[in-house]
Amino acid sequence: GQNIDQPTEMTATEGAIVQINCTYQTSGFNGLFWYQQHAGEAPTFLSYNVLDGLEEKGRFSSFLSRSKGYSYLLLKELQMKDSASYLCASSENMTTDSWGKLQFGAGTQVVVTP
Amino acid sequence: GAGVSQTPSNKVTEKGKYVELRCDPISGHTALYWYRQSLGQGPEFLIYFQGTGAADDSGLPNDRFFAVRPEGSVSTLKIQRTERGDSAVYLCASSPRSNNEQFFGPGTRLTVL
User: Fold this and answer.
1) DSSP single-letter state for residue A80
2) B111 and B13 Cβ atoms separated by less than 8 Å
3) Maximum CA extent, chain A
4) Which residues, numbered 55 to 114 in chain A, qualify as contacts with chain B under a Cβ-Cβ cut-off of 8 Å?
5) Residues B19-60: tens digit of each pLDDT
6) Which among B43, B99, B107 has CB closest to A104?
7) Residue from the list A41, A48, A100 with its beta carbon closest to the beta carbon of B31
8) Taking the mean position of all CA atoms in its chain, how far away is CA A79?
């Protein structure tokens, strides 16, 4: 099993940068995923990391350190529409057909203010 | 449709009743997952299908919960003798292979009175 910890809420100003940290304790860790979820809507995929290092996708970047059990999601040039919950999730014990089971953290509510 | 669809969008039932929740995955996606999400929490894994078979059902909380995917496409999550603690949003996701991005449906909000 896995324990995943992330902050409950963060507030930032439009145009600023916010970093959401996630730590995990795992057995058989495979990869770390980030999802965005607006209130009342389904989660949407943002990024994933399998290897250590930084993955950049436009305004969003995600970092992973497997040795430290640590990841972060970096949101740049914040926009009002970025106000949402950001979910950290890990997968474990990947085989040829069992990557997909994800264990989610409780989510970090990001509030973007004008 | 282009995305994962789930029906009904809302279901209100009484304690002790039986409910069925349906998921239509994206066409051609072989992997299908069920999660449930309580308010203020992240999704909690229930069961995962690869094709018609349940590859991992370790997340089902007890034997009141059962899911099927008889033709490898549509899936139904069945809950017997519902309890108030079953109230949650039930999310379905699919992926083209089990090691790809999961696309989530809008969910079914189940309320047990």
Assistant:
1) G
2) yes
3) 46
4) 87, 89, 94, 97-107
5) 999 999 999 898 999 999 999 999 999 999 988 989 889 999
6) B43
7) A100
8) 18
